[in-house]
Amino acid sequence: MLKNSFWLFIIAFVFVSCDKTQVFDDYKTIDDGWHRDSIVTFKFDQDVSKKPVNMFINVRNNDDYEFSNLFLIVKMEEPKGKIKVDTLEYQMANPDGTLMGEGFSDIKESKLWYKENATFLGKGTYKVSIQQAVRQTGKVKGVERLNGITEIGFRIESLENK
């Protein structure tokens, strides 16, 4: 058993260290459902660069997720205070109700586009805040506690090393 765990660790390490496109990649765990007032925040430092990057929101969810779509409010705060806010919608389930995403167990991971071919014009610390905005059909008030989301991640990939 210990021998198998060792080899599994080595294989996972090799795959992670071969990821040449990764600029930033972090996850935050969601415990006991994602409350509508809970904001997941990521901070990262960036140099001024004309080099384009792709940005993604990664969502890990399980079978407790009961909706076909996911609505997010994403706010990016630049070092000099400029704020960009987007309301985004992602499809999370197939028409038959099965969850989309990668994974062999009941946990699925979805890599969702946030910004494509983007550049950072200001040097300093950027802050990305993500809040769920799911609503039931026909209701104005948002879902109080969104079950089934286990982790939210934010990833930046360089386009140069692809």
How would you sum up this structure, described in words?
- The protein has 162 residues and is mainly β.
- The chain has a single domain, classed as Jelly Rolls.
- The protein is built from one helix and ten strands; from the N terminus they run H-E-E-E-E-E-E-E-E-E-E.
- The chain has one helix at 2-17; strands spanning 22-29, 34-35, 39-46, 49-61, 69-77, 83-91, 108-120, 124-132, 145-146, 149-158.
- The strands form three sheets. It has a four-stranded antiparallel beta sheet, with no helix packed on it.
- The termini are far apart.
- It holds the Pfam family GldH_lipo.
- InterPro entries: Motility-assoc_lipoprot_GldH.
Task: Provide a quick synopsis of the model.
This protein is mainly beta and 162 residues long. The protein is built from 1 helix and 10 strands.
Integer count of domains:
1
CATH class: Mainly Beta
Distance between termini? 36 Å
* Share of β-strand residues: over 45%
CATH topology, which one?
A: Jelly Rolls
How does the overall form come out from the CA principal axes?
globular
Portion of residues in helices? under 10%
Strand order of the largest sheet: 1-10-4-7
Low-confidence stretches: 5-16
The CATH level-2 architecture is identified as: Sandwich
E-strand count: 10
Which structural category fits the helices and strands? mainly beta
Instruction: Note the main sheet.
Output: 4 strands, antiparallel
**Number of helical stretches of at least 4 residues:** 1
Write the layout of secondary structure elements.
Blueprint (H helix, E strand, L loop, with lengths): L1 H16 L4 E8 L4 E2 L3 E8 L2 E13 L7 E9 L5 E9 L16 E13 L3 E9 L12 E2 L2 E10 L4
Antiparallel strand pairs: 1-10, 2-9, 3-8, 4-7, 4-10, 5-6, 5-8
Organism: Flavobacterium terrae
Pfam families: GldH_lipo
Protein name: Protein involved in gliding motility GldH
